[in-house]
């Protein structure tokens, strides 16, 4: 028996100095829906990816001096080709080619590769705060 039997992803949190900009990005690129957020005494936006998980966007403390996000473990610059070894969140889509075209249409810089087995294709890119993202192809059921 697993120690965390029944465990599943509940939400991912991201802090940002502009949570509205970040929310709009995730809504436009992935189809997240904005849901009711509690009042914590600071600004938050809660998003839900239907049938999947939630993302909580949290207002960054104004006095924070650190950059929004490390781009990757291998590079201090925003280079998506370094993301396979850096921090990132991965989504899967069954419409990989049309999703990839939508990124190009939005002018988002990407890095693509296929796994050695040739069955899974990957695209890496950044959200507006420099958080690493991957989208992997998923065959339709």
From TrEMBL:
It comes from the Eukaryota. Gene3D superfamilies: 2,3-Dihydroxybiphenyl 1,2-Dioxygenase, domain 1 (3.10.180.10). SUPFAM superfamilies: Glyoxalase/Bleomycin resistance protein/Dihydroxybiphenyl dioxygenase. Residues 8-138 form the VOC domain. InterPro entries: Glyas_Bleomycin-R_OHBP_Dase, Glyas_Fos-R_dOase_dom, VOC_core. PROSITE patterns: VOC. This is VOC domain-containing protein.
